[in-house]
Amino acid sequence: MKSKVLNQGPERTIALIFDKGDEVISTLQRFAREHSLTASRFSAIGALERAVLGYFDWERKDYDRLPVDDQVEVLSLNGDIALDGSEPKVHAHAVLGRRDGSCVGGHVLEAFVRPTLEVLLIESPGYLRKTCDRDSGLALIDLSA
């Protein structure tokens, strides 16, 4: 992955260009940690060779895994990066388009790039913190934290 700062402020804008084979979530997580991101949002377009999406099962308090085992277009990938304790945490959802025009979407658990993914990341000057929501068991943004 390559990155370039496009704008310094008040909200810093960074372009992230992923290479073939890069895993999206772990690469974003590493970038967030290395650059001390605490409150960011991002959007992306591109293509993937495969992915695993998730659908949150309220009863089990866990994600049903939805494998996507073919080449797909990233029609929309949106997410945020917020602090979960002292560590930045990536949260992303995507809509992926198949060759026949059908779509699949959900929470992004894994996604492998082919040939590229173009991400625009906006870092906000404030902090977003996540805390564990007792009802769902998920780390959710807590504006009072």
UniProtKB/TrEMBL annotation:
Domain PPC residue range list = 8-144
The portions of this protein that span the membrane are none
Which region is the signal sequence? Answer: none
Query: Which keywords are on file for this protein?
Result: DNA-binding
InterPro entries the record matches: DNA_bp_PD1, PPC_dom
This one is known as DNA-binding protein
Query: Gene3D superfamilies under this entry?
Result: Hypothetical protein, similar to alpha- acetolactate decarboxylase, domain 2
What Gene Ontology molecular-function terms does this entry list? DNA binding
**Where does the source fall among the domains of life?**
Bacteria
Q: Which CDD domains match?
A: DUF296 (cd11378)
